[in-house]
């Protein structure tokens, strides 16, 4: 009689998805990808300036990689405000942040400003997650946003995502673990277990802007969130569930602990810091236009005497 194969796990299934194939990285791989995207954009700006003899212009300097990553995190955190404004569910929020973060692994903020990319990602996510809202209503509630701006960006974002719109996150696995935890811990009252679930769910939702989704599978993220809330219960549950595979248990616990750290790494730059980087970004997005505008503002109009300057303010 042949020995049966071990059961297929959710982790095994996830590793056959396009999300895992296209958007899963080690920490070194993610940093390398971010550096490559940043360097390509910075080089393009430098080449533009050199072509016009402006290579030594001190007012136009590409963002550093650290500044770029801070700005991406700053804007990613704004998804919460937008989804709350339109009363969108957490799944839309998760998908929108995922689209936004993935876009900036293909392009730099120095290629495309984050504001309209962010709005378009939320709009796309609402459609992908079957939470329909018209483009007119969506743009009408956002300041200085035209429907054409977002519609013109949709295909670009879809291309950057390799047209893979499905986003898997830790919320669904969390529900499964929650049911299993109740079954294996009948001594814990319902209200306590419910509190653990709700806190873990908030940890996953807040962790959408972290790097955890690039490093870990959705079940690992769910366990990481549970470990952040109640480490003793989570470790006890894992050891009991895999009691015949102690080597596997120790390895899994290390992954879960690392995942917890990533989930909790959600610091967002202060508003003033984000705005300061944003101001610097504007000179990078179209350096030649910025220089021309600066020159025109510094060049006096010789057809006018100093007196008409006062008349202008009165017009």
UniProtKB/TrEMBL annotation:
One of its GO terms (biological process) is regulation of transcription by RNA polymerase II. The keyword Cytoplasm does not apply. Pfam families: Cyclin_C_2 (PF16899), Cyclin_N (PF00134). Transmembrane segments: none annotated. GO terms for molecular function: cyclin-dependent protein serine/threonine kinase regulator activity. The keyword Plastid does not apply. Residues 77-159 form the Cyclin-like domain. Residues 292-315 are annotated as: Disordered. Keywords: Cyclin. Belongs to the cyclin family. This is Cyclin-like domain-containing protein. It comes from Trichomonascus ciferrii.
């Amino acid at each position: 009689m042949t020995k049966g194969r071990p059961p297929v796990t959710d982790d095994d299934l996830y590793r056959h998805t396009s999300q895992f194939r296209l958007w899963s990285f080690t920490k070194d791989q993610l940093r390398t990808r971010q550096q490559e995207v940043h360097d390509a954009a910075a080089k393009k700006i430098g080449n533009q300036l050199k072509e016009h003899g402006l290579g030594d212009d001190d007012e136009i300097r590409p963002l550093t990689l650290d500044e770029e990553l801070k700005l991406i995190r700053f804007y990613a955190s704004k998804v919460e405000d937008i989804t709350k404004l339109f009363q969108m569910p957490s799944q839309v929020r998760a998908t929108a942040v995922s689209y936004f973060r993935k876009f900036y692994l293909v392009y730099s903020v120095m290629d495309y400003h984050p504001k309209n990319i962010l709005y378009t990602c939320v709009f796309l996510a609402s459609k992908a997650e079957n939470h329909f809202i018209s483009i007119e209503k969506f743009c009408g509630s956002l300041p200085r946003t035209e429907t054409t701006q977002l519609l013109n960006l949709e295909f670009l974002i879809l291309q950057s995502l390799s047209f893979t719109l499905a986003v898997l996150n830790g919320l669904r696995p969390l529900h499964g673990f929650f049911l299993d935890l109740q079954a294996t811990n009948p001594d814990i009252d319902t209200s306590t277990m419910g509190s653990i679930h709700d806190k873990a769910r908030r940890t996953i939702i807040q962790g959408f802007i972290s790097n955890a989704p690039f490093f870990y599978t959705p079940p690992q993220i769910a366990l990481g969130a549970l470990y952040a809330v109640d480490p003793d219960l989570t470790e006890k549950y894992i050891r009991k569930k895999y009691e015949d595979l102690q080597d596997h248990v120790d390895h899994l616990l290390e992954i879960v602990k690392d995942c917890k750290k990533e989930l909790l790494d959600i610091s967002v730059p202060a508003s003033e810091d984000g705005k300061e980087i944003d101001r610097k970004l504007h000179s990078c997005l179209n350096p030649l236009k910025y220089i021309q505008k600066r020159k025109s503002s510094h060049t006096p109009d010789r057809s006018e005497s100093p007196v008409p300057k006062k008349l202008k303010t009165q017009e």
